[in-house]
Amino acid sequence: MSARGYSELPVGPVILDAGNSRLLKTGAWRTINRPVFKEENCSQCLLCWLFCPDMAVRVEDGKVVGFDYEYCKGCGVCAQECPGKKGQKAIAMEEEKK
Ligand code: SF4
Ligand code: SF4
Q: Is 90 in the pocket of ligand 2 (CB under 6 A)?
């Protein structure tokens, strides 16, 4: 085996092009839980959209409509921050089903 400097090593699994986050399907390595939207308890405060680290909360016409599971990592931040309505949360973390 020949000795090689670090600068000669092949580039690791890195996408160098700008705007590449769409190519990284972070939902592929989601935790065992996924968020489930309960529209009837939603006050449309958009806190879940604000806090989601992966922009995986789907918003249409200014309203939350669900989640993009191709990018959702199942971190649960949205469910933690969701104030819901009348003491009922609008996001529940549920175990992933096959
Ligand atoms: S579980 Fe995490 S990644 Fe998925 S939508 Fe909620 S905040 Fe975003
Ligand atoms: S944080 Fe909860 S109540 Fe607010 S928009 Fe998201 S799901 Fe609805």
A: yes
Q: Does the Cβ of 56 fall within 6 Å of ligand 2?
A: no
Q: Go through the domains of the chain in sequence order and give each one's CATH number.
A: 27-95 (3.30.70.20)
Model-wide pTM > 0.85: no
Smallest CA separation from ligand 1 atom 4, residue: 72
Q: Which of 50, 46, 43 is nearest to 88 (CA)?
A: 43
CB of 30 within 6 A of ligand 1: the answer is: no
Q: Are β-strands 33-37 and 91-95 bridged in parallel, bridged antiparallel, or unpaired?
A: antiparallel
pLDDT in tens, 48-78: 999 999 999 999 999 999 999 999 999 999 9
